[in-house]
Amino acid sequence: MATVKAFSALRFTAKSGDISKNVCPPYDIISTAQREEYIKESENNIIRLELPMGEDAYSKAGELYRDMLEKGILANDKSEGIYVYEEEFTAYGQRKKIKGIFVRVKLCEFSENVVLPHEETLSKAKTDRFNLMSATNTNFSPIYSMYTDAQKVISGRVDSLTQGKADIEFTCADGVTQRLWKIEKGADTDFIEKAFEDKQLYIADGHHRYETALNYKKKLIEDGIITDETHAGNYVMMMLIDMENEGLVVFPTHRMLKDLKNFDEEDALAKISEFFEVSEIERKDIESSLCKNSGNKAYVFCTKSGKYYLLTLKNDAACKKAIDALNPGKSEAYKGLDVTVLHSLILEKLFGIDKENMANQINLKYTRELDEACDCIKDDAFNCSFILNSTKVSEIRDVALAGEKMPQKSTYFYPKLITGLVMNDLLN
Fold it and tell me: Residues 60-90: pLDDT tens digits?
């Protein structure tokens, strides 16, 4: 199963200045304006490497990276270790903590059933990450993965080793507190490495980066750079977290429909009622109504007229038959997802928005913000929207174990992992 290794992380040195000014959120949620703000805070901010822009962006990122190494702004730790990472944050009105470990994980093809994906990827994003990796030979941001540890063998050991003050601690502008400890190479890291030998890993976030790492490894082999199994290019950096961690939070991603031809609200409601129980609710009751029905397939339909309807799937043979017909060959785990039911019975069957349309976002836009989903109908381009419950972590596991991938935008793990705290030099 999984091969996990301690490593000498690439990190910002004291020469770089305040570490809290040199890190940033993942590149794919940062706007151009936000990127400039991070650079204004610190000329050493990792965003300059992780999200290069302009002409010859990748080659310039490579030059900047080498310059930062030469100046000692970035350097590999002198000793190997496993890096324990904790985020403390607020979600759903509660203060939570989530703790995992930064390690190197041996790259395996998905067909080997060691590292399992749960979402589809897009070619454009993989090309971007491949070009950056080729120019810098480095993982600047980790892949977020989960593992099962019912007996707390790994997570319990990690907790026992990180009871004291963190080596690094700071709070970001979004209120998320970041902490990092290092477990030096020795008996404890050996124990952790061995404990993963019977584990499968489930990618939570970072599918594009994982597939890119596989392609990059093939390139290094073709170029004669990787000549044995010990080379760093055979591995990729991951943050691994116990799937049963109480701090795990998955936010829903809502669907906003736009530019639909001949859309009629009353007609849509009549067709929806074939498969769903429909009841009008107040906007203030959206979250509580969905929460009460989280064990069912339930959604809120936001309409142009300013009305909100709770939709609850009817438990009958007609519904199952319709879902089966639109998802031939799919597992029960896949067909039982909230997003699958919504896509099948409403987006596809009612509005004719097929999977290709969804992938290209022709008539569909996604948002994590409930207010945005509710208020989008004020824009003439939008016809309606659907509010969803969160996908459960157990559902992610079951779909991955079935060898399938969820529809796009099925999960949003919160909070995102910080970029730049720990990095991975793929040639060292």
Answer: 999 999 999 999 999 999 999 999 999 999 9
φ/ψ of 256, rounded to 5, equals -120, 125
Question: What is the C-alpha to C-alpha distance for residues 295 and 277, in angstroms, rounded to an integer?
Answer: 15
Q: What is the DSSP string of 108-134?
A: --GGGSSEE--B---HHHHHHHHHHHH
Say how far apart CA 156 and CA 99 lie, in whole Å.
Answer: 11
SS3 content of the chain, % helix, strand, coil (to 5): 40, 25, 35
User: How far, rounded to the nearest angstrom, does the alpha carbon of residue 84 sit from its chain's CA centroid?
Assistant: 19
**Whole-angstrom distance, CA of residue 77 vs CA of residue 7:** 9
Counting beta carbons within 10 angstroms of the beta carbon of residue 230, is it exposed (0 to 12), middle (13 to 18) or buried (19 or more)? exposed
First to last CA, the chain: 24
Query: Given this model, what pLDDT does residue 160 score?
Result: 96
What's the chain's Rg over C-alpha atoms? Answer: 23
Dist. CA 357–CA 364, nearest whole Å: 8
State residue 31's pLDDT score.
Answer: 93
User: What are the residues whose beta carbons fall under 8 Å from the beta carbon of 159, sequence distance 6 or more?
Assistant: 99
Structure tokens at 34: 């936000």
User: At how many degrees (to 10) do helices 207-222 and 123-136 cross?
Assistant: 50
- The closest alpha carbon to 143, from 26, 248, 233, belongs to 26
pLDDT over threshold 90, residue 316: no
Residue that is written with structure tokens 């569909």 in the block: 364
